[in-house]
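Weekly sync notes, structure subgroup
Attendees: PM, AL, DS (notes)

Item 1: joint prediction request from the bench team. They want all two components modeled as one assembly rather than separately. Inputs as received:
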Amino acid sequence: MGFIKGMASMSRYRLLEEPEGGLTDEFVQRRLEENAFVDIEETSEESSLGWVQIFDQLSSAFPPEDWRFGEILAFSLRLDERKLPARTLSRYCAIGEARFAAQTGHKPNSVKKKEIKDALRQDLMRRSLLDTKLLEVVWLAENNEVWLGATGEKDRALFEEAWARTFGLGLRLLVPVTIGQEILKKPLLGQLMALRNPSSFGESE
Amino acid sequence: MAQERHVDFLELWQEKMFLGQEFLTWLWLSSEVDNKFAVPGGTEIEVWFENSIRLEIGQGQSRKSVTCQSSGQEDGSGWAEAFTAVWRNKKVSNARLRIRSDEREWALTLPSDTLSPKSVKLLAGADFKQAESGKAALAGALLDRTTFLVELANLLENLLGLFLGLRLSQAWETEELPRLKGWVARWAQEGQPGNP
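Output from the run, pasted for the record:
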């Protein structure tokens, strides 16, 4: 859901600072490549988070023509995750421990139990399916504004962490009060900051 | 530094969280009374709320909410339950609404905490079409959609600016709030619209 197809949703952020050397293609490309998505399909890693092209979730190469569209910069954040239910792991551990006992004639001690558990976790992780999430990001360079194509709190946190790690540039979420700070002039701005008491539209509280 | 800045932002957001609910409540009641909003620059914006509004009161564990469905009558009587909720001091926390300005018309969902538009559809004024495959077509769709969404963001900012201008003026307590309260009271107590 987002900026290319389907219904659009967006969280708006104000960019609070520019890169030291200005917003160059080299800066963006290098940072995207350094924080590109790494495929974990053939591994037992639990999750991987990184950038991919906005039009091709399988590509982590970032030549400017694939993310710069005039004054708009666009790319996607990809999260691949595999989850192993605790009940599944504990069932396999019980089987592993029983097999060990049958082979050796004694129950595994705590060190051996941990060894069995770690090996099983790795094996099961490698065999479990990955779930992929894509979050589209649009950077309006002329407006110093960045949009995330999602509005959920978890998605915002994921994006904010990845943005900070990748670009190191401060962002501030645009919410009613921060939009107000941007559009109001003195003296209304001071009055907004001093406003403490909500109004009631109904019978007196 | 960045962490301090973030903490300051969260404190400010929390402290002024009521602004979004007041804005949506004002926007809904005003749209029922006036329907049209004149914003600076001579632009006229039409707003109407669609079939579902969530209203809330309180915070955290003491929060109570109700979701009201409109029964569709054009005179506003379809919102009787929602008017009663406002009369009992609940405020709008989430709503599906339509906005029209010039030839464009949008449908969107707005939560009061962020005013981040969700499930946005462009209903008229341009083709918010599905992108075809092919990089050039996809890039064209991205640029078109971004332009339309910038327009929508500007309209929402204009409406919020109109509200804040009123909210921070003396006329809020002496004219605007009594006007809307009176209207809500007549709905809640008499089941019919009064003179705004």
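Discussion: The first strand of chain A starts at residue 11 and ends at 15.
Action: AL to compare against the crosslinking data before next sync.
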